[in-house]
Amino acid sequence: MPCDYSLSDVLERLYENQQALQAAVMELTLLVEEQGAQEVGGNVRGALWTMGENAGHIKQGLARLKKSDIG
Asked: In angstroms, rounded to a whole number, what is the distance separating the alpha carbons of residues 18 and 65?
């Protein structure tokens, strides 16, 4: 069983934090947009889109890293 502080575990937790921050920022974006700040909402959505695009690559890298930890 890998150590709780292995590189793959630490990176997995960072990834989970990123996902949680994305969700929190989206909630705030919806609130800001309801108050009429559409341009701000659009800017934030652009940043969130980039984070979402990178999430797939991060997840694939984590899977490979975990596989190498086991082998």
From this structure: 18
Q: What are the Cα distances from residue 37, in Å, to 20, 21, 25, 28, 43?
A: 23, 20, 14, 11, 10
Kindly report whether the global pTM for this prediction surpasses the value 0.70. yes
Average pLDDT, the chain: 88
Distance CA(7)–CA(5), nearest Å, equals 6
Which residue, 13, 25, 70, is CA-closest to 52? 25
Residue for token digits 């984590």? 62
The more confident residue out of 18 and 68 is 18
Q: How many domains does the chain have?
A: 1
Percent of the chain with pLDDT over 90: 54
Range of the domain at 35: 7-70
